[in-house]
Amino acid sequence: MDPKTIKRQLKLFTDATDAEVKLFASGLQKFLERNLNQLLRDLERGDIKAAEAANLLGALFSNLRQRGLDNYIENVRHLFANQLDRMQTLFTTFTKEKAVFTSQDITTFETMIKFHEDKVFSTVGTYVDDTKAAFMQTVIAGGPIDVSQVVANVSDRIESNITTEFTTALMGFNRAVNMAKADDFGLSLFWYEGPDDDLTRPFCAEHVGGVYTKEDIAKWDNGTDLDPAIYLGGYNCRHQLVPVTEKYAKEELDWNGNND
Amino acid sequence: MANEIEFFEHPEYSEHKSDWTLYEILYEGDQDCLKSSQYLWPHELEATDIATPTGAPDRPTLDLKPGTRIRLIREQRSTYTNEIEPVISRWQSVFFKKDPDTSEVEELFGENVNDVTGEGESLNTFIKQSVLANRLIYGRPIIFTDAGMEQAVSLQDQRVKGLRPFFRIINPLEMKDWQMILAGTRKGQFEAARFEYEVIEPRTSMRQQPRTTIYSKELLFQQTDDKTGTYFYNKYRLDTDAQTKKESWVLVSSTPLSDFPNLPLRSIENEKSWIKDVAPLALKLFNLESGLDNIHLYQSYQRLFISGSLSEEQKKAMAEYIIGFLPDNAVVTSIEPVSTQSLENRIEAVKSAIRKVAFNQWRQVDSSSKAVEGADTQREVKEAITSLVLSELETLETLVNNAIKDYAFFATGKADYTGKVKFSKEIDVDAIVEEITNYNMIKDDLSKLPTWRKAILKKIARCQNLPEADEIIAEIDSANFQETNPSLGPSIRDTLLNVTNGPENNQTPA
User: Which residues contact B9 (CB under 8 A, 6 or more apart)?
Assistant: First the structure.
């Protein structure tokens, strides 16, 4: 398959991942807004006492879970599963065979996905705590409460936080698996692929289009706290390391054996 | 035959007896009754019997069919957690936080105020325990006032013989037939009633085997005028013919008593049990916990298999009942233990629903409802519970005072007794509402702090005054309350395996 076609396919995969993450993050924000508005509407009564408000707020997270928060957060596993599916497509493109995932691999992925699901719970928990604090202050002060306004103010951050977190996490997952499975296929070279436009970081602009060995990659420094071998340019990096054969690198990517 | 006595069941008795039986079994926690298929719902595997297994010739087995064996094992593993008794106890404490005021009637009862039933129950205990409990459990408390009338021919005779009156609470499952007066000054009172009960016949020597006999009391009231009538007190015994084994009723005694104002039988009619909505949830909980325990106990045993050609002697030597044997080249597929998380989630949801439904009777909340109560509804809860309990107290007070009038007639011969017991209307509904409210206020925090959660649970357990409190507290201490995120859909592993088409162990591509 020629590089242009691969680039197009990779862009489709990236766009699909972005769309899924956005759908998940915005869906989560809407879920929280809708349910919190319903759960807390009684706070808008002018005569509500602090004890009654505490009662409503105290069980907020538990009530969100009763209303289906767990079901929603389970979508995280599908985000990662879709990434695996796309990686399989890529491997098949180059090697005509599917990557093999051992029991150990599955267990590792399972642990990692559980970690991310727990993180979302924790993020939602923090958001709920912020909401509780915002409301209790207003109840104690005795001022009028606009539930939808308070909920909206606190929830503005949820969608962007979740989007950044999962875009980074999924791309990182993608690259980590690529790196690990490349060995199985005897692929030791990696093509730094992705957009080169106004949004591209200097680190990525320097490397995009190039072909690198694992040893080259190990020496990178992207100036962030994220491992460049996995996260390349850093948060929200849109680039990929595509494992390629030496033949492909030389014939299709004009690689001359070094990166001077 | 012409002289054969036949008794019947009232249509309402036939309609309600299965419900009353259920409430009674759930309240008393009768483990043996609960294991019948009516309450411990059979699994499909328990209903099928495919083949009869055979045991080794020198080791006789029970020769049970697989379905029966599975059922017996599950029954052994199933234990009923009694959620109904604490609910009833809680309501009893709400109704009678203060004892009834019996000062007006103490002169009538005299020293018998400490034993109104002839079995050591004081008047207060009779009201708070027997009468109220029957109202809550069955919806129908029935008080029968008696003075051993089968031994007397009149009230005067009763007094001469020193037969003092006493109360007896009749279980609705005992009173099989009745008739109410439909018009006149006695409208709503009993005109006739029949109940059955068991008696262990008196023995003259401990060398005699105990014998249980079923008796039936038939009470009839024939009105003479607005003020008096004749009270017929008939007693029957169920005899079994030694030859034919046929059962038949035999009249033992018949006592007509004239100048009675009414049948000394009082009840509350056409009311529902206070646990009618909770009972199905308690039964569901029992079955869910049975499923959970069955899975856990099954999976705690490792299954071993040996593949190869072994002789029968070799198998016996290797304890053939512990190890499974497979023919040559057989492949054992490991079956992953099933996750019990969804069961555990459902059990928690049902327990929560029991608590909510038991103390919010009038709302008929769906046990799977995800509705959350706002502050308005919380206030509504408190007001509605208060008015419900007050209304119920008035009804119970009237019932008890009517029974006391019957008692007074037996004791004094006068039908115009005016003394009354007064129930305290100072009820503490706050205790229940506060309990639910406090729990809600700190639910989120409780779930994050296992130590705090255990402490609160232990405190609640002590408040219930259950006899098993020590065991419950020990269980709470040893429980692992680590918070995990429950998975309600396919597991993470299943989701991954669907995409990767199953993991291959240590294989690399060619």
Answer: B17, B176, B177
Q: What is the pLDDT of residues A66-99, one digit of tens each?
A: 788 888 888 888 888 888 888 888 777 777 777 7
pLDDT computed for residue B336 by the predictor: 53
| The most confident of B131-135, B148-152, B350-354, by mean pLDDT | B131-135
User: B3 or A226: whose pLDDT is higher?
Assistant: A226
Higher-pLDDT residue of B211 and B156 is: B211
Quote the CA–CA distance of B251 and A65 in Å, as a whole number. Answer: 65
Max mean pLDDT range (A123-132, A179-188, A228-237, B11-20): B11-20
**Chain A 37-76, CB below 8 Å of chain B: which residues?**
38-39, 41-42, 45, 48-49, 51-56, 58-63, 66-67, 70-71, 73-74
Q: Fill in the amino acid letter for B105.
A: V
Cα–Cα distance for residue pair A207/A41, rounded to 1 Å: 53
**DSSP bridge partners of B323:** B304
Residue type, position A125, single letter:
G
* Residue in A63, A62, A79, A80 with CA at minimum distance from that of residue A27: A79
The larger pLDDT score, comparing residue B465 to residue B138, is at B138
User: For residue B143, what pLDDT is reported?
Assistant: 97
Nearest residue on chain A to B368, judged by CA atoms? Answer: A66
**How close does chain A come to B23, measured CA to CA in Å?**
29
d(CA B366, CA B85): 21
Give the number of other CB atoms < 10 A from CB of residue B407: 26
Asked if A259 has any chain B CB less than 8 Å from its own CB, the reply is no
Residues 6+ apart with CB under 8 A from B244: none
Q: Would you call A77 and B445 a contact, using CB atoms and an 8 Å cutoff?
A: no
Considering only CB atoms, which residues of chain B are within 8 Å of chain A?
370, 372, 374-376, 378, 437, 440-445, 447, 485-489, 492-493, 495-501, 503-510
Nearest CA in chain A to B497: A106
Asked if A118 contacts B486 with a C-beta cutoff of 8 angstroms, the reply is no
Does the predicted interface ipTM exceed a cut of 0.85? no
**CB under 8 Å to B208, separation ≥6 — which residues?**
none
Instruction: In whole angstroms, give the CA distance from residue A45 to residue A50.
Output: 12
Pick A110's closest partner by Cβ from B443, B496, B506. B496
Supply the mean pLDDT for chain A: 83
| pTM attached to this predicted model | 0.54
Positive or negative: CA dihedral B221, B224, B229, B234: negative
User: How far apart are the C-alpha atoms of B105 and B93, rounded to whole Å?
Assistant: 23
Tell me if chain B has a CB within 8 Å of the CB of A94: no
| pLDDT for the residue B452 | 59
Q: Report the alpha-carbon distance of residue B255 to residue B219 in Å, rounded.
A: 10
Span B28-56, pLDDT tens digits: 988 888 888 788 887 776 765 544 445 55
Q: Tell the residue number behind the tokens 């008796």, with chain if given.
A: B215
Distances (CA, A) of B28 to B25, B85, B441: 5, 7, 33
Contact A222, A231 (CB under 8 A): yes
Please say whether the beta carbons of B30 and B286 come within 8 A.
no
Indicate the burial class of A173 (C-beta count within 10 angstroms; 0-12, 13-18, 19 or more).
buried
- Mark yes or no for CB contact B493/A54 under 8 Å: no
- Nearest residue, CB atoms, B440 vs list A59, A95, A97: A59
Q: Is B460 left (phi over 0), alpha (psi -120 to 50) or beta?
A: alpha
Instruction: Tell me the percentage of chain A whose pLDDT exceeds 90.
Output: 3
A124 touches chain B (CB under 8 A): no
